[in-house]
Amino acid sequence: MYLPPATLIVILFTYLVFLVSVEWAMQMDGAWYRPFVLCFLVIAAGAWAYREQNSDEL
User: What's the confidence (pLDDT) of residue 38?
Assistant: First the structure.
């Protein structure tokens, strides 16, 4: 099964964000918006990685 590199990047970033957000969720004095910023970065990285693909490759 072939996975495009952009999909692998999104999967990797999602895994890393999950690990970091679990740690952040356990902190009582942390900023509540940090996981959302990281999720936005994951979405932006996926959009950036898919920007050069033709519609035939999807």
Answer: 74
The answer to whether 9 touches 46, Cβ cutoff 8 Å, is yes
CA distance 43 to 16: 13
Residue with tokens 């970065």: 41
Q: What backbone torsions phi and psi does residue 2 show, to the nearest 5 degrees?
A: -90, 130
What is d(CA 57, CA 54) in angstroms, rounded to the nearest whole number? 6
Q: What is the DSSP string of 1-58?
A: ----HHHHHHHHHHHHHHHHHHHHHH-SSS-TTHHHHHHHHHHHHHHHHHTT--GGG-
Task: Report d(CA 33, CA 1) in Å as an integer.
Answer: 36
> What's the whole-model pTM score?
0.49
